[in-house]
Amino acid sequence: MPNALIKRLIEQQYIEPSAEFSIAQLRSHFHENGISVDESNGKIFLKKIKSPLVPEIIESLLSTIRNEIPFTVEVLQLIESTNNYLKIEAKTAELPLISLAEHQTNGHGRRGNSWISSYGEDICCSLAWEMPSGYQLSGAESLIIALTLAGSFEKMGIEGVQVKWPNDIYVKGKKISGILLEQIYSEGRAVLILGIGINVVDHFKASNQAGFSATSIENEINLYDRNKIAALVIEDMLKTLKTISPALDNHSMARWGELDYLRGKSIAINQITLLKGKYLGIDKNGRLLLKCEGEIKLISSGHITEIHP
Ligand code: BTN
Description:
Layout: H1 4-12, E1 14-15, H2 23-32, E2 37-40, E3 43-46, H3 55-61, H4 63-68, E4 72-79, H5 82-89, E5 97-104, E6 122-131, H6 140-156, E7 161-164, E8 168-171, E9 174-186, E10 189-199, H7 217-221, H8 226-243, H9 250-259, E11 266-270, E12 274-282, E13 288-292, E14 295-299, E15 303-307
Parallel strand pairs: 4-5
Antiparallel strand pairs: 1-3, 2-3, 5-6, 6-10, 7-8, 8-9, 9-10, 11-12, 11-15, 12-13, 13-14
The protein binds biotin (BTN).
């Protein structure tokens, strides 16, 4: 079924069944796409968002850091993906630019994995940040950002926060957030596009994000003020982006060790061949150390699965 139906529902706040789509088809289409609806008088109504994102509120919560780093926050109602959107906008926009969306129709993570979010119930946020010209991502940056995000969750009062190589945040074994770091070059500018997806409200999706067992902020600490959550995360990200470097420092290495979800686990990494071995941590360049057939291999990318004894 077309995304145009989602667009129409969000614009008009309701939708009527037609010869093409019955009310049952519409209901299941919106449900499958993470959009909560009510039915009345034969029409489908969009459920009111519990905590709508308001750019002015987010900016006012960030007034101190905004004096130091002048940035713009915008809220889009519906977009395919905030990362894809910024990859185009950032070519001409003043940076830093921060785009949040109430809904994404093609949210994704690394390796094309889909990131499922629910209308008005999560944080889908991307930040475009100008790096020194010619900057090349080393791979360590996404680990540094994951540690920053883990710190933001701890500040909110969430316990049991963990980082999973290379860019996921878990809470007591369940995924709460993911990061997608990309880079574009445009007219001599090297721009980093940092996408962050956070499960906020506890709903059907939170139980299964991209095949992993998932949780949400509301589930953990009963907080669902999305403007407050977005402001806290954006502030921490801006501070980190200001000083980000292509290697982890000693403090970050130690923090990774403390929060490491994979510590002590046997894992399999899907590369050209399937590598199996014991996870031994990371190096300063953000590479994973895998003990495999008596050798230590340095891994820069790949999909990880745990091997349960
Ligand atoms: C992952 O878990 O693999 C990363 C998920 C990243 C999702 C965010 S949501 C905002 C931004 N837009 C996207 O399409 N992806 C990122």
